[in-house]
Amino acid sequence: MLRARCCLRCLVGLDYNQFVGSLLPFSRKSAWIALAVAGVLTALLLFVVEGSSSPATSLLESDLLQTAVALWATYCSFQVGRRSSGFLRQFWMLFASALVLVTAAQALETYYQSLARAPSLTPWPSDILFILWATPALMMFLPPPAEDSSGVDWQRVLDFAQIGVVALTAYLYFFYVQSRWEAEGSQMVVKMMRVQVLRDLAFFVGFVVRTLTVSPRSLRAFFGRMAIFFLLGAASGLYFLLFGLPGSGTRATWTDVIWCLPFLFAAAFAATWKSDDEPFRLKAHSAFRVIVLSQALPILIPLLVLFMGRRIAVEQITVAWVAITASFVLSAARLVLTSEKQRHIADDLRRTEHALRRSEQMFFIAFRSSPDAVGITSLPEGKFLEVNGSFTRLTGYAREETLGRTPLDMNLWKDPSHRARVMAKLVQQSEVREEEFLCVTKSGATRVCQFSGALIELDGELCALVIVRDITARKKADEALRASEERFRTLVQDFHVGVVLLGPDAEIQFANQAAQQMFGITLEDAKDKNSSELDLISISENGTEIPFSMRPGPRVIATRQPVQNEVIGWRRRGSAEVLWTLGNAVPQFAKDDSVSVVINTFTNITERKQAEEALHQLSTRLLQLQDEERRRLGRELHDSLAQSVLAVNLNLAQAAQSSDSLGERAKHALAEARRLLQGMSREIRTLSYLLHPPLLDELGLVSAIREYAEGFSERSGVQMELHLQTGFGRLPQEAETALFRIVQESLTNIQRHSGSQTATIRLRGDSTCVNLEVSDRGRGMAKNAMERGNGSSSRLGVGILGMRERMTQLGGKLEIESSLSGTTVRASIPLGAEVSNVGSHSRG
């Protein structure tokens, strides 16, 4: 019991110190609970000491209550340590570890003393724990690990184990010798108690020294209360030596209460601890101390254990061998880890130094070459410590004129009160960005600048890194841009062409007066709406409705490509009146390369479209009249002139038969006249066929094309290849005429211009459209001939423009592809009904 009280007192002292070091504030409710539990345990212990009648029962109850007090202190320290961080968490966990040892020692002491009734003058296993519990407290004096280290710190673990081995060996060396216990008896207990008192006093002195040498307020409070805790432990030990020995092992006495005082102090201190300091770092130990602790002690400690093991081996050779072996193994491992750690530290230092030199070089280059004026000023005086070349160019002051002076001395700020507000903001927020101010240069000129600054620390002094950017030119440019935009807006507003600005979602942002009048809208009603929301329907030239996504504005936003010279008709829903416009849409891009604005321009071409429609109708009528006239002339040539020539030729034949009385010259003239009439007859028939082939009306397009191709091949020598759809029926007369004229014009162009020896005609049709294709392998056509039409029409054709006009009349389209390898003409006509099988068209 006596040894238990002494050892427990010392252990409580260490636990308390560690507990204080790592505790975070208890809540008000938790603090009252902790204090209440400690008070209840103390009251029960006082009751046992004063009120229990049975000595054996009081001794057991006192031991159990002392164990409970230690256990409660252990629980409180662990909870506080779990909620702590940094070094305080490490100290609290060391403290909790010590309390665990104390609690275990007191529990063993209770068993051997009150339950097993072991002889008090023999060594007990609990004695070892009462010696080892101080190991965690000693760990607080070792060099601390890095605060941000993660994982297990094996060096700390090895140090802890080595100290434990030394403490265990020392106990075995001095006290765990059976012969000494038999010879000295109770004096061994007294000697153990004296050693523990001296230990507590040594810890008291150590923590007082640490209290006087650390600067953070939390650490000073922590180490100061640690010193008080060990002082209470030493005082309780002295009280036991002076007053507690008689009858201490037979019943509960006041020495038991005195033994609990350090624990009660620890519980009270843990419950009321508050740490208001900001995060801190422990100062690094001296190089000599680090070398001693990391290199010398791992060598000296095993030698000390070896020395003490010689005596232990006399009676406990196995224990001595285990202690010596463990000490040497731990020391070897500690040296290996230390060497490895120092190697890593050296590598890290080299990398850090290299990075630091590189960072300094980069900062120096950036500082000197920055286009912005950069300076470093002291705080709060504001004296310039360093400036770059851009600063001297901006202000006009040389570097020697600037260093050591303040902006107020140099009158750099036109408004000094503005500078005071900016610097106050910098000190308060640690950073200021892009504060505009007026800077006065040495010459007296005023520049518009932006001030940015940040707080930095140089050689332990607080300074400000300031950056000043001259934005005078940008301000002037902004003003010029605003003026230009205003002039542009005024010009656009009065422009006769409609101008509409669309946003990134095709919403209307602006419409000038011409656009509002053109579309019958007002800017107030149209703003932030799209064209579909205004009930505007867009139609193409063929009369089909254009979906919203294919209108110029949305299409430009989707494709990011401009739209130029696109003819679009607009009408309001429910109205038949169409507004025809020639539109352009050009995208404008933001800094992130997204479409920010689409500029749409619209020119009203309704009158032009109406004139084109009238011209188109006139052209259609002219072509119809031309075809009718050709048909009439072809018939007249075939039915009248050709018959007359044939009659003359027959008369001449009769004359030739009765020409016996004629001379040779007359016979030759008569034969020549017949030959000329025969040629004239062929020319008349060919001309009649070219003007209007009879087969086109009688048998249809396929027969007319086949017959014409055969005749063309005979006349021109061009080999023809025909791909005419089998069973191709009849088409409307206008369609057959238009397609036949395209075949005529195309073959004429092949003969005259392409130089091709072959030509191909393809004709296909279904219920929806008819497709005609005429191709050759000649030299191709000039681009301007395809775009503007053939300037010199053939004798019977009207060139490319004529072919296009015929297709337009029928709602079809004509495409021409030409290259060095040949030309292809494609014509397509939509059909409203299936191709008919009518035998012939009226010739009337």
Brief summary:
With 844 residues, this protein is an alpha+beta fold.
Kindly report the average pLDDT value.
76
pLDDT below 50 for ≥5 consecutive residues: which ranges?
1-25, 146-150, 788-798, 833-844
Strand order of the largest sheet: 7-6-11-10-9-8
Residues in helices, as a percent range: 55-70%
Radius of gyration: 57 Å
**Helix count, DSSP H or I runs of 4 or more residues:** 28
Would you give an account of this structure?
This protein is of the alpha+beta class. 61% of the residues lie in helices and 15% in strands. The chain has a 6-stranded antiparallel beta sheet. β10 and β11 form a beta hairpin. α9 runs antiparallel to α10. The longest helix is centred in the middle third of the chain and has 53 residues. The protein is elongated and about 190 Å long. The chain starts with a helix and ends in a 14-residue tail after the last strand. The N terminus and C terminus are likely disordered.
Keywords:
844 residues, alpha+beta, six-stranded antiparallel sheet, 28 helices, elongated, disordered N terminus, disordered C terminus
Secondary structure layout plus pairing:
Layout: H1 2-22, H2 28-51, H3 55-83, H4 86-115, H5 125-132, H6 135-139, H7 154-174, H8 178-184, H9 186-213, H10 217-244, H11 254-272, H12 287-315, H13 317-369, E1 373-378, E2 384-387, H14 389-395, H15 399-402, H16 407-410, H17 416-429, E3 431-440, E4 446-458, E5 461-470, H18 472-493, E6 498-502, E7 508-511, H19 513-519, H20 523-526, E8 536-539, H21 552-559, E9 563-572, E10 579-589, E11 595-604, H22 606-657, H23 664-691, H24 694-698, H25 701-716, E12 719-724, H26 733-754, E13 758-765, E14 769-776, H27 783-788, H28 799-809, E15 813-819, E16 822-830
Parallel strand pairs: 12-13
Antiparallel strand pairs: 1-2, 1-5, 3-4, 4-5, 6-7, 6-11, 8-9, 9-10, 10-11, 13-14, 14-16, 15-16
Helix pairs in contact: 1-3, 1-4, 1-5, 1-9, 1-10, 1-11, 2-3, 2-11, 3-4, 3-11, 4-5, 5-7, 7-12, 7-13, 9-10, 10-11, 12-13, 22-23, 25-26, 26-28
